[in-house]
Amino acid sequence: MPDSSPWDDIAVPNADFNVRQVAAHTAAPCFWGRDTGGSCLFIVELHGDHTAQYRKNVVIVNGIDVDLRAGDSGWQRLVLTLDKQVDRDLFEGLCRTLASALERATDFATSLAVALAHIRRWKTFLSGRNQVLSPEEVRGLFAELTFLQELMVRLHSTASAVEAWLGPDRSHQDFIFGNTAIEIKSLSGAERNTVRISSEDQLDSLNDRLFLRIYRLSNLPEATSAVSLNEIVVAIQASLGDPEAVEEFDRKLVIQKYAPLPDYDEPRFVVSKVNSYRVGESFPRLIRSKLPSGITKVTYDIELEAIDPFQCDSAAVFEEN
User: Fold this and answer.
1) Assigned domain for 304 exists
2) How many domains is the chain built from?
């Protein structure tokens, strides 16, 4: 964070609070503010009555007071208040990334859903500040979200696509929709041509159709099409629209230990290659029903050259759905 902060030039008021509007293009106006006690505030103005939505999804965060207050006639205010000035830099990071996320929301209800989802992810981070995703975890989550974006288009339903993302809920495959299961893998541009399978169940499914899809990701920060993990999360939030879908998406991100940290502004990925493989009886794999007695928790690598004959067109994944 820079040495100066957005609260430095806001005077402490004698009553209510003083504010300065955030320089962001949001459906719900956002403001930096100070109250009579000098506390740092972040305020989101919401038109209409959002009390029921707020009470259903309220978030309690240690060190930050989150409250929905009555505003001018027909308006309400979501007010975030920092308890301790020593945490101001961290609070500023939360508020700035929240303002960025709100730029993608198109109405007040969705703005509130995005805000509460964003705060919930920060709560997860603040409860264990060492929980930063490893480079491999960042890459894996990015690949899953890339497929989620495609699935949202293919299914013509953002809610159904989010519901199909089952990896966070400990499903054997990352996505299941209709009678199709998909396991997602990622490779960096510099990695050798093998893919790691982390269990004997990952390439075994009760669904009739099982596919392995591999994304090769290149870190090309200067490329115009490059996207960071934070950016793809915000883009998906904006596409969801439905507050309940936003909440479900957020729940799954929390399970994945994601919070909108500056750490995830880099790397910035370009998907350089996507390969899809149809997994069937002759596909080289280890599955639970064919393991010797007493063998379990298997992890193994598959050479991509060995599964080349099973490669299929990306559209084949969606043919029966």
Assistant:
1) yes
2) 2
